[in-house]
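User: Okay, second chain of the day. Same drill as before: sequence in, structure tokens out.
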Amino acid sequence: AQLNRILADARHYHNISLSHVSSSAQQLDAVASLLPGTRHLVLRSSSSAALSALLPACSHRLTTLDLSFSGVTDADLRFITGAGKRRRRQQGGFDDPVVAHLRSLKLKGCRHISDFLTWTRTSDHDERHLEAPQGEGKGLATGLSRLHTLDLSWSSISSLPLPLAEHLPALAHLNLSTTPHLSREVLIRTISTLPTSMSHLDLSHLDLTAKDLTNLAFSSSSALPTIPSCPDQKDHHRRGRPLKLVLAGNDHLTISSLSSLERHWCAGLLPPPMSRSIEIEHGGLMLESDEEEDVRRFVEMVAGVVMREGRSSSAADEPSSSS
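Assistant: Same drill. Structure tokens below.
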């Protein structure tokens, strides 16, 4: 009986990782009873029904949440961010939303989300004006203001809270790879208002051009929030940590255009002493430039690689002759 009481104590379950959670009401209730004390939660590939039963059981203790390839919906996410509903008043203020201290949110491959971040921004903006004392309410604009890592790759997201630096001021890692529903206009506005905390930005397979990327910039008005877990955050960025920019699969980019972009960014990205270098990762073969001669050489080079790979595969498939 004592062991059962210990096992039933949610405070012991800081880390929970489940995939394909059962839809059994009894099992869902059992898991939900453990979530109030959970800090790191993985519910990959879970159904929308299972998530609707489990996510409301989480508390503001949650710091990392991985819902990749799940059936999570905008409604589920709006609920845990506190958007679309009035927060309950507690002694000394209002209760915190589930994501109040969230540092990492992974929504890779989620095909039922579109605009929850925009809803979060709008709802929180309205709530601040209704509830904040006079002279307060400026600055951090969403329940995700502490978010450090956001993975939206391969998802159906179609909007983002802009300007990004205002609504996600602590964001350091953003993955937007293969998000076909994000318009070019939204992407350009996103990369022109990066928070100064940003250190890794994945824009792979978005059909971007060099012109689209010229406006890449950190927001001059963004300020890093004070977060206990990152006491040296501002000093860290003043030391010049480079921004890693992943551009794989953007076939309109050439080696020449990337060189021009790097020179442009170095000149205008951030004023000293905050200016940082950019490390570009593009992968694969790239055109030297758009000139006809370079295109011809590139096609010949690719054709040669394919032919060599084809011969190697054929040779490996041939049976060895016996002596």
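The chain is about 35% helix and 10% strand.

User: Thanks, on to the next one.
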